Amino acid sequence: MSSRRDRKSAGLLLIALFKLTKGVLLVIVGIGALKLLHRDVAETVAHWVDILRVDPDNRYIHRLLTHVLAVTPAQLKEASAGTFIYAGLLLTEGAGLLLRKRWAEYFTIVTTVGLVPLEIYELARHFTTAKIAILIINVVIVVYLVARVRR
């Protein structure tokens, strides 16, 4: 019986750590976006391309650079705000799950299910392995938490 409870707790711990990790990474991205607000984006991107020894003529890098350089300060502010809001949501879920709060299980189910249609839409627009992996992980999280809540 104890090993079964440990497995249940391990699943909850993994989900909590997954959510917390995503939340922390998004905070870092949000801070990076805010730091770009008061700088010359082209100069900053050129600096990082140089440091990372990336070939700017590579078609994927070139496409990425084209998109990054087209971002306006207003778009950067909006993206940063959205990033911080989503990070707050993930950090709330992760902390609540880590503390084994029942409300966090329900909260995570609702917020994760709410994002699944957006993930499906994005997958339909542009199919990538990463997007399918994220969708599968989120569906597994929801199924696991629903089964846990129903017990």
Note the topology.
Elements lengths: L1 H36 L3 H11 L7 H11 L3 H26 L3 H24 L3 H22 L1
Helix pairs in contact: 1-4, 1-6, 4-5, 5-6
Describe it for me?
By secondary structure, the protein is mainly alpha-helical. It folds into two domains: about 1-100; about 100-150. Helices cover about 85% and strands about 0% of the residues. It contains six helices and no strands. It has helices spanning about 1-35, 40-50, 60-70, 75-100, 100-125, 130-150. The longest helix has about 35 residues, at about 1-35. The two termini are about 15 Å apart. The mean pLDDT is about 90.
Domain count = 2
Radius of gyration (Å): 19 Å
Structural class by SSE content: mainly alpha
% residues in beta strands:
under 5%
The string of secondary-structure elements, in order, is HHHHHH
User: Which of globular, elongated, flat, extended, rod-shaped describes the shape?
Assistant: elongated
